[in-house]
Amino acid sequence: xxxxxxxxxxxxxxxxxxxxxxxxxxxxxxxxxxxxxxxxxxxxxxxxxxxxxxxxxxxxxxxxxxxxxxxxxxxxxxxxxxxxxxxxxxxxxxxxxxxxxxxxxxxxxxxxxxxxxxxxxxxxxxxxxxxxxxxxxxxxxxxxxxxxxxxxxxxxxxxxxxxxxxxxxxxxxxxxxxxxx
Amino acid sequence: xxxxxxxxxxxxxxxxxxxxxxxxxxxxxxxxxxxxxxxxxxxxxxxxxxxxxxxxxxxxxxxxxxxxxxxxxxxxx
Lengths: 181, 77
Prior knowledge:
The complex is a heterodimer of chains A (181) and B (77).
Chain A: E1 10-15, H1 20-35, E2 39-44, H2 61-65, H3 81-89, H4 107-119, H5 124-133, E3 137-141, H6 142-147, E4 161-163, H7 165-174, E5 177-180
Parallel strand pairs in A: 1-2, 1-5, 2-3, 3-4
Helix pairs in contact in A: 1-5
Chain B: E1 5-8, H1 16-26, E2 33-38, H2 43-54, E3 57-63, E4 69-74
Parallel strand pairs in B: 1-2
Antiparallel strand pairs in B: 2-4, 3-4
């Protein structure tokens, strides 16, 4: 008898950290649980949204001086030079994320990625794609979108909604499993 | 007996096998059979857990070369 034939259970995973190891964990759980039959919703807050963004090198002109996007959830009237600074300092893209420990100035992620490749472990980019393809929903916190100048959907590799804490409350209250990573 | 759908996830690790499995099962009808082959250490337990959670019947498990295992399942309702 299946566990999931009644109303499917729901779960949420909130990613606050912009680090490779934390992001791998979040997408592993979200994708895996969705495959097992739980309807998963991922929320991205603060640095968590970094893994959804189109990768951009620290040294690209547009990253520091490009026009700040408008888009969903943004209030361009209250932008200042600090939005450019924040965007410039942000690790944009899954390939740019540091490790939370053993980062060693960038050597750590390179070592971890090499190990993962050799062991056949799915990369973070692959895990994000798998989670999206299998139906995990992505939502980004609106105040983070505004403060950190994330242009939705232009800056992102995957479609995401922009919502607030009330929507997060409704989802977590209806869910059996809620984690913050 | 040949399965309706064959899937090979050898060389990939958790969670890719069950994600590929879930995607394939979505396209299948109740009563059809699916054969999946994998070789990671968690492959057998992942597929067994998947069948238990999603209500499919595990018909057979066959060990192959190089730690590879082939499992056949029947899609439930």
